[in-house]
Amino acid sequence: MDLWYSEFHTPDAKFSIKVNKQLFSGNSEFQRIDVFESPEFGRFLTLDGFMMLTEKDEFIYHEMIVHVPMAVHPNVKNVLIIGAGDGGAIRELTRYTNVENIDFVEIDEMVVEVCKKYLPQTACSFDDPRVHAYYQDGLKFVRKHVNEYDLIIVDSTDPFGPGEGLFTKEFYGNCFKALKDDGIMVNQHESPFYYEDALAMKRAHKRIVESFAISRVYQSHIPTYPSGHWLFGFASKQYHPVKDLQAKKWQELGLVTRYYNTNLHKGAFYLPNYVQEMLTDVE
Predict the structure, then answer these.
(1) 162 — phi, psi (to 5°)?
(2) What dihedral do alpha carbons 227, 34, 200, 217 form, nearest 10°?
(3) Where is S-methyl-5'-thioadenosine bound in this sequence (predicted)?
(4) Has 280 been labeled as part of a binding site?
(5) Is 127 annotated as a binding residue?
(6) DSSP-assigned beta bridge partners for residue 131
(7) Is 197 a catalytic residue?
(8) Of the candidates 279, 195, 170, which has an alpha carbon nearest to the alpha carbon of residue 234?
(9) Mean local confidence (pLDDT), 100-105
(10) Which helix (H) or strand (E) holds 27?
(11) DSSP assigned state of 237
(12) Secondary structure element (H or E) that encloses residue 247, with its range
C-alpha cells in the first residue's frame, strides 16, 4: 500500500508527496511535530500538518532569507533570529566571519531537538559559539531590546498557532525599536497566489509599512510551499535592498550558494503585476 503525505492548500487544491516511512511523530506543548522520509524530497518536517521544509528544496528558502539582507548591510555583527527552529537560517548566517553574535529565539525547544536528530543537514550549526539560544516567545523577547541588532530575521511559521504573534503591528514595531539606526528586518511573507495566503501577506505588509520607512517585498520559487511562489519582506531604516546592494563585496566573500546570487537578488524585487497591485493597495 502506498503512503502519502497530503496538505490542503485550499479546500479545492491538495499537495501530496509519496512517503517511504514516518521517522518521528510527537506533540510538544505547542504543536504536533512530524518527520517523514520521501523518495522525491528526502526527509521533511511538518508542524500541525503543514509543510515546513524538505531536504531537497530548503536551501532556496534559507539562502533567500539570509543572503539578501547580508548582501545589503555593509557590516552585520549582531543578529536576532526569531523562529527558525530547523536551523537552516543559522547555518547560512554562521558562514559569515563578520557576524559576532546570533541570538536565536524559538518558542518550541522540541522542534530544535527533533531537527538535530532527524534533519542534521539544516540543524548543523546550533553548536557554533556565536549562537545563543533562548526558548521563549519571540514577541516577549524582542520587547526587551532597544537599538541593539544590525539584522533581525523573522523565520516564523504561518500566522496562526504559535507563530500568530509574529505577524502583529506590535511585534513589527518592537523589531523596529530593537534595530540599530541602520538595521534591517527580513521576514517570510507568505504566498500571494491563493486567496487566504494573499490576505495574510497583505496584512503583514500593511503592518510593516506602518513601522519602516523602507519596505519592499521579494520572491522566490519553493516547490513544496503553497503554489510554489513565495514572498519575503525586506524592511529597513536606511538601506534600500537594490540600490544599496553590495554586489562586488558579497561576491568577494566566495560563499558557494545553490540558489542565491547577486543578479538574482536584484531580479527578486521585480514582482508580477498582480502581486505589485496587492501591495500597492495596502500601502
Answers:
(1) -60, -25
(2) -60
(3) 31, 106, 137-138, 162
(4) no
(5) no
(6) 102
(7) no
(8) 279
(9) 98
(10) strand 21-27
(11) S
(12) helix 247-252
Kindly tell me if the per-residue pLDDT of 96 is higher than 90. Answer: yes
Q: Which residue reads 531537527 in cell numbers?
A: 115
Whether this model's pTM surpasses 0.85: yes
DSSP label at 244? T
Q: Is 29 exposed, middle or buried (0-12, 13-18, 19+ CB in 10 A)?
A: exposed
Place of cell 518558542: 107
- The one catalytic residue among 34, 150, 155, 197: 155
Cα gap 71→75, rounded to integer Å: 9
Q: Is 62 assigned to a binding site?
A: yes
Residues 74, 95: contact at Cβ < 8 Å?
no
Instruction: Kindly state the cell numbers that stand for 199.
Output: 490576505
User: Is 197 marked as binding a ligand?
Assistant: no
Was 87 annotated as part of a binding site?
no
Rounded to whole angstroms, the Cα distance separating 90 from 86 reads 9
As a whole number, the mean pLDDT across the chain is: 94
Q: Which three cell numbers stand for residue 272?
A: 508580477
How far from each other are the two terminal CA atoms of the chain, in whole angstroms? Answer: 51
- 3-state SS assignment for residue 49: coil
Mean pLDDT value of segment 26-52: 96
Instruction: Report CA-CA distances (Å) from 5 to 32, 50, 161.
Output: 15, 10, 21
